[in-house]
Amino acid sequence: MRYVLTGVGRALFNAVVTVGIVLLVWVAFLSLLDVNEFVGKGPSVVWEYLVTDEDAGEHLSEVMALVRTTLGDAAIGFVAGMGAALVLASTIVLSKPAENTIMPVAMLMRSVPLIAMAPVIRLIFGSGTLATTAVIAGIVVLFPALVSIVFGLRSTSPQMRDVISVYGGSSFTALRKVDLPSAMPAFFAAVRISVPGAITGALIAEWLGGSGDGV
Known about the structure:
By secondary structure, the chain is mostly helical. The chain folds into two domains: 1-53; 62-208, MetI-like fold (Orthogonal Bundle). It is built from nine helices and no strands. The longest helix is centred in the middle third of the chain and has 39 residues, at 56-94.
């Protein structure tokens, strides 16, 4: 029990220190750069707006509605990006020509700034549509997830694949019975990496995709 309390206390202490550092950096950033109050609000202004103001309840409800919208867009982008990464990674492992086709395109999409691709995506899928949000947020998630999953699928022991081959199994059978289970650690690592990217992608989609909703 003592170890549990010690762990909880340490976690709370770390959380308090982290919040304190964030607040100090926040205030210092606004002060040193002399940011206009219309552009950047300080912690005290935010606290008053959400907690102590007479309309704080209404303000908080409005902010939470915007946060829910952004989290919903992030979930859409996360599912789209992870789903595309899983399908493309499986295709790459099954086919060398597919790898030679997919990887250059994926690297090109990664290297081109989203701010440059956003107008094209809006023209193709429409302004402020669900498809535009899914594509923009999914692109942010896609490349790191694709690389991680491909690495995981190719980390299978050759002996395990040989067993599948000896018993007459195809490459798809090896993928389904050996490669995918072996790639689960890499898949969950990709999930952990992609969650912050999905939120960033959702914010970019809301700003550049034309919806104007969310945070």
